[in-house]
From TrEMBL:
<protein>
    <recommendedName>
        <fullName>DUF1468 domain-containing protein</fullName>
    </recommendedName>
</protein>
<dbReference type="Pfam" id="PF07331">
    <property type="entry name" value="TctB"/>
</dbReference>
<feature type="domain" description="DUF1468">
    <location>
        <begin position="7"/>
        <end position="144"/>
    </location>
</feature>
<keyword id="KW-1133">Transmembrane helix</keyword>
<keyword id="KW-0472">Membrane</keyword>
<feature type="transmembrane region" description="Helical">
    <location>
        <begin position="6"/>
        <end position="25"/>
    </location>
</feature>
<dbReference type="InterPro" id="IPR009936">
    <property type="entry name" value="DUF1468"/>
</dbReference>
<feature type="transmembrane region" description="Helical">
    <location>
        <begin position="37"/>
        <end position="55"/>
    </location>
</feature>
<keyword id="KW-0812">Transmembrane</keyword>
<feature type="transmembrane region" description="Helical">
    <location>
        <begin position="75"/>
        <end position="108"/>
    </location>
</feature>
<feature type="transmembrane region" description="Helical">
    <location>
        <begin position="120"/>
        <end position="143"/>
    </location>
</feature>
Length: 153
């Protein structure tokens, strides 16, 4: 058993309980399906399966082995980068637009992953343009517009 299983299970259990409890505060419109139902079910399943993982991790606590990726700086950088990229997109896209922020995020992630910078830049530009176009024009989901998006519209 790996040490992180206990803590991961505990985190999922706590998150599942928090989701289910928070959902109980949702307004229930008359004559409609309750918006509480889906989050309560998802939170309940998260808590239940998280509890199973926690129990399994606690039971096997004597056989602790650390995962091999902990010795790789690149793997740790990739894991840390993704949540930071989500936060950065949320904070920066409103000011600079979706295309440039997505391009920079994909470029940096590709460089950390080991892609040569020129290929990472090409990939970043392609993904930034295509994903923004798909969200806005195909799915109809508005994304933050910046100077580049205004030129393309």
């Amino acid at each position: 058993m790996r040490l992180p299983d206990f803590w991961t299970g505990l985190a999922f259990t706590a998150l599942g309980i928090a989701i289910a409890v928070y959902a109980q505060g949702f307004h229930v419109p008359a004559g409609a399906a309750s918006p509480r139902l889906l989050p309560t079910i998802v939170g309940g399943f998260m808590a239940m399966f998280g509890g199973l993982i926690t129990f399994r991790g606690w039971r096997g606590a004597g056989n602790v082995e650390l995962p091999g990726w902990l010795s790789s700086r690149r793997q740790i950088a990739l894991i840390v980068f993704l949540p930071l990229a989500v936060v950065a997109y949320g904070l920066l896209a409103l000011r600079f637009g979706s295309i440039p922020v997505a391009t920079v995020i994909v470029f940096l992630h590709s460089v950390i992953y080991g892609l040569r910078p020129i290929y990472a830049l090409i990939l970043g530009l392609f993904i930034g343009l295509v994903v923004t176009y798909l969200f806005i024009h195909v799915l109809g989901i508005p994304l933050p517009a910046g100077p580049i998006e205004e030129l393309l519209s």
